Amino acid sequence: MGRKLQLTMTCLLATTLILSACGSKKAEPSAPEGEFKEITVQAPDVLGIKLNDLNGGGTLGGQYAGQKIVVATRTGDFADALKNAAKYFEQASGASVEVQSFPAGTDVEKIQLDLNTGHHFDAVLMPVANVHGYAEGGLIQDLQPYVDSIASPNLDLDDFIPSLLQSYGKYKGKLVAFPYKPDSQLFFYRKDLFEDPKIKEQYKAKTGKELAVPTTVEDFLTTAEFFTQKFNPESPTKYGYSSMASKTNSRLIWQNRLAAFGGKDVDENFKPAFNNEAGLKAMETMVELRKYAPSEWLQLGWDEANALFASGEVAMMEQWPGLYSTIEGDQSKVKGKVGFGVTPGGSPTMGGWAIAMTSTTKYPEATYKFLEYVTSKDGELLKIDYTMDPTRTSNYERPEVMASNPMYPALLDSLSAAKILVDPDVPFVSSKLNDIMENAVQAVLRDFLTPQAALDEMQQEFEKEIKFAGLSQ
């Protein structure tokens, strides 16, 4: 696309966002007009837990009868989870809920277009980077007025994992969304090998240290070398470390170390904040890890990386939680042999989705109550069967929830420690910044650029795109 055409399209988008924001008056919370009555919601037990609060802490009593809420999201588990919760919300509120979903690859464009011009949606469930872009464009509302006036007495914002409420829910100091689906890079390791007395003895003889799950970057590198046959012929695994390193995935290797060394991608003013000692050390660590990774590392995407770990050839891996289904599959050679922890360095990269209310909703109170409902302490348990993990600390403290998934202790620790989003929190250009990071990381891993040269080039490209988006100060 030519720069002139790109500039024209960006200007049109910016104009549309401004017109959309100016042309829609945000409805102020007001008292419900419908008749309120006591309602008992018939809900199933989840994981053996009796869900007792599916009437909004007593704030839902059929008063929104005749109102229809339209929620937009991606086709699949996201839509199915919302539809499941909507059944119970409809019983409690009297409102009806329509979930409109779009396939991955078209969802972002179609939802953005409707938010700009169609105004059919009352709420959206989308990745955090998109939600914050909507906030920058004035397309979604500040939820705080509704929290202050009509919230359930059981809302308890402090119960959300703090990093999620801050990173997902807030944008420029405003509460623009509730956390819905959390995600974080996890550390997967061969628990059977780490607990093997003979291997522990060999490790101590070779390194002078006790073999333990690495928590520091230094111990991570030492352990990766020990479990790599190229450097230790007695290693039970061929490779000490692996991850996804194909283009579109490789930036995670760098991001998982960036925050560990005290860095970040951009600061609160959208200025690049990685071209420093932290960014350089993260790049250099990535280069060091290459020595302990598979020879085909740069070709490993999601399926390939997961299959290799499940084959038993790798001792340690950093990956999204979805790896669990592969390692516990019937074809896995490591089934029941894997442990879970926080990525070494203690600052994993996180993804995630949030749910927000549009600025043009016809029914702001009912819509707010739906957002509150599906993210409530009991309400969010209705989504667990749809691969949507909890976002609230109290749910991880329920023994039944913790017992349902052996990854949950590590996931809670990882979400609590995470500081950097996988998609830079820069509206309108987040995907372009991802591409810039990928190009830089690939250039370093392929020895096309030195780590410092890659950081310099990445900073220049970041500054150019952020300025082009009109966000630089």
Automatic annotation (TrEMBL):
Cross-referenced Gene3D superfamilies, in alphabetical order?
A: Periplasmic binding protein-like II (3.40.190.10)
Q: Does the keyword Transmembrane apply?
A: no
InterPro entries documented for this protein: Bact_solute-bd_prot1, SBP
Keywords for the protein's UniProt record, in alphabetical order: Signal, Transport
Name of a matching Pfam family: SBP_bac_8
The entry sums up its family as follows: Belongs to the bacterial solute-binding protein 1 family.
PROSITE patterns reported in the protein's UniProt record: PROKAR_LIPOPROTEIN
The protein in question is named: Bacterial extracellular solute-binding family protein
Signal sequence region: 1-27
